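ok posting inputs for the fructose -6-phosphate job
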Amino acid sequence: MVIRFPELLVAKKPDSQFLERARRAGKSGIKGICLVGMGGSSIAGEMCRGLLLDQSSMPILMVRNYGMPNAVGKKWAVVVVSYSGDTEETLASFEEARSRAATIFVVTTGGTLAERSQSLSTHMVPKGLQPRAALPLLFSAVHPTVEALLAHETTDLEEMSRSLGQQAQNWRTRADPPSAMAEKLMGLMPLFIGWKHLVPVAYRAKCQINENAKAAAFHSELPEADHNEIEAAVSYRKHSVIPVFLRSCFEESSITKRFDVTSEVLSEAGCGSIHLRIKANSALEESLAMTHYLDMTSVELAERLGVDPLKVDRIADLKKKLAAYRSHLSPLS
Ligand code: F6R
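and the output
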């Protein structure tokens, strides 16, 4: 599934009606955009927010919870993403957005969400993947939708898919392909640190190591981490934490300095770090290519740890237990 990342980015585009409706909503003077989703289905929204917020004329909120912030109402666009269509937090937020008469766009494979959104703009994506592996499919729906809402030109994802395919070919000639990165992470707890559009990529990497390799991983962001987390550097060795800096080709010189000085301070505290760089022509290509690379790293790590990257037994078990709890409560509620 991870190998198919570039191909999945162009496997199912949203139809022109769906995007036209987003363009019309954007022109109608909406006050903001609210992106909704949990886990693997939230990453596309997080990445779009990281990429588009700076040029956005309106707030872009991300909701990973039950319900909607109070500010979200009739003049808001809400993009609801759930791969299964059955995630309870996402369904609760969807219902709340509906009750507030927001303009809703749904991206799903089916489930309760598809049933309940029949009269709305719904983009159906193919079933059969793990939600987290469906990121390119979900991204290829959410990104043009947000671009349309913002009245931006839509980015050519066909071209992007080709570049990502080429980037993956080039892993072979890198000194540090995903397999080498996985080797470096063996027995360590990675702390992925991003800046700007690479903050969601750091978060995604953490989640992929958690879900695919069943291993502990963390994420944070610069410059914020320099105001708190950096003090913990003296304990990193004891806890086998390895900071992995996600470096951008688009760092401003002050940010480059900050990454370098942060790394120096960590090293003086006895903690080594890894710097990951990927050549890219745009922030979008950098976000996707680095995500693809780190997704592959998580699978390589799973293989080395002898765990099945596909299985998410604890997530499934937890969902089952909560569903049983809900059905037990429902006669009273
Ligand atoms: C499983 C995964 C999870 C799910 C999450 C929400 O591969 O990545 O994080 O994405 O439990 O479920 P969906 O995506 O179906 O709304």
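notes: The longest helix spans residues 283-305. The beta strands are 32-36, 60-63, 76-82, 103-108, 121-124, 189-194, 218-221, 241-246, 274-276.
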